[in-house]
Fold this sequence. Notes:
This protein is of the alpha/beta class. It is built from 27 helices and 21 strands. The strands form six sheets. A seven-stranded parallel sheet has the order 1-5-7-8-9-10-11. Helix 25 (698-705) links the parallel strand 20 (686-689) and strand 21. The protein starts with 25 loop residues before the first helix and ends in a 5-residue tail after the last helix.
Amino acid sequence: MSDTTTRPAFPVGTIIGYPRIGRRRELKKAVESFWAGAITADVLETTAAELRAATRERLASLGLGRDDSSIPESFSYYDQVLDAAVTVGAIPSRFAGLADAEGAVDLAGYFTIARGEGDNAPLEMTKWFDSNYHYLVPEIGPETSFRLASDRIVREFEEAKAAGFVTRPVIVGPVTFLLLSKASDEAPEGFRPLSRLADLLPVYRELLQRLGAAGAPWVQLDEPALVSESIDEERGAVLAAVASAYEALGGVDARPGIFVAAPYGSLDDALAVLAASPVEALSLDLVRGATPTGLDAATASALAGKTVVGGVIDGHNIWRGDLEAAFGKLTELLALSPDVAVSTSTSLLHVPHDIDDEPALSDQLKSWLAFADQKVAQVATLARGLVDGHEAIQEELSAASAALADRAAAPGVRDVSVRDRTEALTESDFTRGDYADRLAAQETALGLPFLPTTTIGSFPQTGDIRRARAQLAKGLITEADYLGRMQAEIKRVVDLQEEIGIDVIVHGEPERNDMVQYFAENLDGFAVTQNGWVQSYGSRCTRPSILWGDVSRPAPITVDWSAYTQSLTAKPVKGMLTGPVTILAWSFVRDDQPLGDTARQVALALRDEIADLEAAGIRIVQVDEPALRELLPLKNADHAGYLDWSVASFRLATAGVRDETQIHTHLCYSEFGVVIDAIRNLDADVTSIEAARSRMEVVRDIQTSGFEHGIGPGVYDIHSPRVPSVAEVTELLETALEAIPGRQLWVNPDCGLKTRGYDETVASLQNILEATRAVRAKAGVPA
């Protein structure tokens, strides 16, 4: 076993992770400049080092120690799971040429694996547990050759040490890494990546040895997969893997202390396994889970010898929270172990940097909130309370309680008219007519061809569009000037779609800064930020809105834009709305009432919008729900309740239309088979889903489910700059037609085109239409 006699104690206050994009998105800008060839890899690395240094200084100023491992080294250029894959040499065979003789890839190669190049598709991307972060899915097979191919994690620790900091290196743990991986293309049918654990562990052992030699007192291994019941692996096999992995890692000589972080829920039966392992510190998410009780004698005894880290500060949301209750949870942990520390429930990468960076928000609203920096300060406060006692932090606890009381009593938090309307709902408000009748009515009204083509909604947001929006906000142009510019862009987009030959037209959404924020700015009960950026994936950042009060729609939001678009074309135009579940998922939502209650309020506001669109002559309305799968709870026992209210909110929003009006929805990273019944119960006439990056894997689920409504599995991966060839799209369409009756199939990209450039967008859409015409001709129908 390792020698622990000289290892420092675990810090009494810490965080699991911190935003890495920079307070002004410096990393995003530098990475995208590197992609564009405007800066070199050396310049990018210098920028990244400066960001890491600024983060360490900032965290120290907020109360975390400089020399006690309380500051995590959780930086990533793109994604932490990709980082782990590159570290252990798990490079797909199609990218083998990017690696040197030791299996290492440079920054250009790293980003190529993430984004793809030429005919080489990037790693698949999917949601990170129940957050709005996306991770890249490693591809593992019998052929994967594990080795310590990158020592970046060691070098970043040494970088911090040279600057006077003793930090805590962070990497995705071995069990979670394999559980989040998929079988490679070369793997035989039925292969499970977890079967490679014994081959992977020597790499982690070597990494621990390297970190120990560098002087790291502690290392953090992130194992969130252990809290999830949505992992496609038998639970017994998972627990056995945990036991063998940490027995092996615990036996490394002269290693750092091992801190296993398990965010996003309760560990349940994995707690006993980790307690029995040689790890020295273990985190418990006490925001999503409760303090463990009723432990057997062996588990209780083993846990008493470890540092138990209470994740009592919510890393998922931005509310200031009840610090008195949080301190009470920490006190409860003393029944498990005499060695208790305080932390955030999850990494703070899910929240913005600093509420003090929001001058446009009212002082009252800001007093209710805590962004990353404020949460770090809360951790420091509670850590001081653990050391010096409750009385030492009474002032801070009382201030937090007063803010809670002020929030509960503030005008707008509860609106009687909104609550009366939701209370008056009946079953008929959630129900449309029979689908067969609707289909017949829509076929007559719309007259669409076999394999109708459309896009998901947005078109590229050019620099001119963003400048016009910024100029309007600064008062440099008038509303009339702005309207004229946006209408000119809409006409450009409509003309382009007509020229390409797309069947169902969208207006391109040039007026929208974000698919949720745009609606938040036009609904009561929301606030928006100026600098509240949060990483979604890679260099992509969003600004989640703050849903603080009861929601209503004071006026129509999209009707004029859609009506103008329809005036430009004889083809049907889709009205574009964001659905209630996604508005909740991609906002910071009030935590003082059930999510289902809030979803109904948002749904009623959208129902009013759809009624106005229909009255304005819009015959197709798309209500996007890309987050439907994302919010699915990690615990099976919670699925039914969530699906009940999430499906009901969509139906409430859409059930008021006539049979002739076609309702579409769109889902991202939906893992269709997991929520197939829920998608069917949405009762949308057409559902589009992401399928290109996974090469139509989803169609097997569609085929076996008996799904009968319209379906549009994406044929163009918009998260990559690649232009899919005609042959590639044709192959995807033919694969889809093997599983889905042609009468149901729609042709569309995976997602909206906002983040793409016009050249690649036009080329991709032209290829899609050429492939569609070829498949139509092969099927014997007019092209």
